[in-house]
Amino acid sequence: xxxxxxxxxxxxxxxxxxxxxxxxxxxxxxxxxxxxxxxxxxxxxxxxxxxxxxxxxxxxxxxxxxxxxxxxxxxxxxxxxxxxxxxxxxxxxxxxxxxxxxxxxxxxxxxxxxxxxxxxxxxxxxxxxxxxxxxxxxxxxxxxxxxxxxxxxxxxxxxxxxxxxxxxxxxxxxxxxxxxxxxxxxxxxxxxxxxxxxxxxxxxxxxxxxxxxxxxxxxxxxxxxxxxxxxxxxxxxxxxxxxxxxxxxxxxxxxxxxxxxxxxxxxxxxxxxxxxxxxxxxxxxxxxxxxxxxxx
Length: 296
Hints:
Low-confidence stretches: none
CATH architecture of the largest domain: 3-Layer(aba) Sandwich
Largest sheet: 8 strands, mixed
Order of helices and strands: EEEEHEEEEHEHEHEHEEEHEHEE
Strand order of the largest sheet: 1-16-17-15-12-9-10-11
CATH superfamily of the largest domain: Vaccinia Virus protein VP39
CATH topology of the largest domain: Rossmann fold
Oligomer: single chain
Helix content: 25-40%
Structural class: alpha/beta
Mean pLDDT: 93
Distance between the termini: 15 Å
Shape: globular
Strand content: 25-35%
CATH class of the largest domain: Alpha Beta
Number of helices: 7
């Protein structure tokens, strides 16, 4: 799944642990640990960045701006006849609220929701675990899904609600749930709640609402068991991605292996440079469907 040729985003260059981008008209220089090669552009080109994210000794970071960016930055995202609006903000970790490698994932999810809606004759019930600022949730809602967006951070939930309002969508189309992902699934299992689709983009490590510890390699198996226990066996999909160092695509395939799937397979996420053929690797994924794919 490759991100390329977006009207409001350009990956200009990368290298030496950095990447140079234009995000909604703002040139940004920020960390990119996977960029272990040398940059192609000159230092003078990199020096044109308006905003630079600098790592601090305590493991955090801070932004240095030549000119303060506006407070109302958005990323327009067009799919079919809809134009969604995602709020952008520069955070201390070098993030802006959108992970651009996820855009092909949004497009995949949009189509899967449409397929399921036609198969089921109703709005599919889908879950976005570790949902962050809600871009994928809003895209699935725009396709006609009833979405449960789960994240442990109230701040990113509020951020997502802002993007939903900017996209002029029904505020009830996404249910924003502040909860640990595994606890949400346990509660769903106890209450016999069944879902038609699940998206999970877990971090390598993190903490839940009640300081529950998440470690990808230690907890991914339990998470998969919980997801499968709350996912209908017919006409359902699952999308799992990972950014954990050392985990390979085939490992995700093996983790998700289950007889219910009619189609599933692993792959890589990446962002293509705007002016050359290089691809910035940005994680791995595995898709799974309990129905056969149709022409798209």
